[in-house]
Design a protein that fits this description.
Helix content: 55-70%
CATH architecture of the largest domain: 2-Layer Sandwich
Number of helices: 14
Structural class: alpha+beta
CATH class of the largest domain: Alpha Beta
Order of helices and strands: HHHEEHHEHEEHHEEHEEEHHHEHEEHEE
Amino acid sequence: MRGIPLHTQLRYLRAGVPLIVVFLAALHQIALHTILLNIPDPLWHDRIEILIYGLTGSIVTWIGLTWIAAAVARRAEAETQVREAFAKLEFNHQKLLALHDLGEHVASADDEQAVLELAVQAPLKLAGAQASTVVTFKDDGDQLKLDMAWGLSENYIRALRAQLDAGVSAARCRTCTPLKTKASSDCPLFTGMHDHAKAEGIGSLVCLPIAHEHERVGIIAAYFPHADGPAEDQIRLLNILGGTIAASLHSLRMRAQQVSTLHALDRASQNVETINELAAQMLYIAIEGWQAQAGGIFLFDETTQTWMCRARYGLGETLADPRFNLGLRLARQTLATHQPIIFSDLDSPRDHDLLGAAAIPLATEGLTFGAIFLGAKRRRTFTEKHAELLMTMAHQIALAIRHGQLHEQLGRMAVLEERYRLSREIHDGLAQTLSYLGLQAERVESLINGGRSETASQEIGEMRQSIRAAYLDAREAIDGLRLSVESPNSIAKRFAEYIAEFSRQSGIAAQFIATPNDLTVDAGIGLQLLRIVQEALTNIRKHAQAQNVEVQMNVLADELELTITDNGRGFPDSAQSNRVHHGHGLTIMRERAESLHGSLTVATGKGQGTHLVVMIPLKVKTHEKTSEVYKTSEV
């Protein structure tokens, strides 16, 4: 009955015992009756019955006791087997619980170092290993790199690190199939380490591959004191955990790379460039961050109802390329739905060889104006769990592009506004002077033809003065186009240089005073202030008949005060011919001051000179006190 469970044997015995007893009793009585029939003396009948009953009773008792003893032995053996099975079941249960706990900790780990620590402890907890290491392949894939060690002595770790740093090829570890070897073997992790392994009491090694998408990226090496290593069921537990560890490491590395992508996008958005350059930079960062092989940024013009690809990578050479068509088609779909479109596994990649794709709308301030498309040659590069991260990335790109668009519009408006101001200055200054010179030339020609040489000579003298004035106007117009304040830290120096050049060309004594002399303002503010000074000095040269000019720039609490004072004749009467141009100059200066949210005040009188005061609300930087500049203008 070997091989039959104990409870089944007992059930069979309980059912057969009554029949066996009846059969044996009947057999006994038949035998006794047969014997007594062959003995004629009745006196021997009782003796023979006693003898036979004694003999059969002893035999029956011996058989019964033997059977009971065997049953008790079988029961004891069965109980031992049950206890061993229960102990093994309990052991496996504890290992499964440990596996479950380790898996949960690995899945919930929020950084790569935590996963590596759990991975290196797993062989000790699940397979009773003596020590373990986590070894990954370097970025080039040809070398082994020791990331983490647990349970090994410092001498062994030092020797192992020196061995790996010397250059141990990762080729065998990439393709190794036994994943189990003795310490005396030529395994790359034991090469040159035999004496250290013997001193450490290491007898064997079992490697647990860390793989992503069927490609090994590293191994967990478990060291055991005996040469046979762990049981197969323990290795299976380690393999189960290995998949979780590989997935968690890949997820954390991708998340870290994607977060770095967001930071890189944020830094890139600070540098305002042309839309195409900005889009190309954003697309490159996104492709690198998501390890994609193709991508494009598509913008939609509501006015013309047309799409424009502002940046593209890996979308083929022509617009008819299947990759480009896929990107544009998904861009249209995501613009229509205002939701990200994600394909983890494309069904028909034959024409474009992309296995994963995502298109995310570019939206900001309630306006959706385009989409970013990313394509990858790996499956599951983009999944639904990445949707929120992709939307965050797309929002940053949308903000940067929208900012770039507004900056371009602002730049165009500033250029047009500056051109308008310069055109008024040239029209009211240089153009009128040239017109006057044309009339004077005709008059001189008429005088010469009439023989009035002396009068013509006087007119030529006046023309010479007008030509000099026109030259100065032209120089000032050219300087106006060249004016800049590249470094806000040198604004006082820039003002001083310009005013000194004005004094040299005009012959008017001019000085500049800045308090403090290390004044720093926003470059846009500095440029507008410099243009105000230029316009004021031009008016002084043309109309004030002044001998001295003083320009001061002072910090007053949270305002900057610019004053320009001359000792000229003051404003002429409105009836005088040049009053119109003078008024245009003041208008231009007032417009510039107001563009900085400031004000312009003019104090003058006949024969009293002119005093201009410009007040700009801002905070400044000095060596003694530092605070942020109020960027009141981006012009």
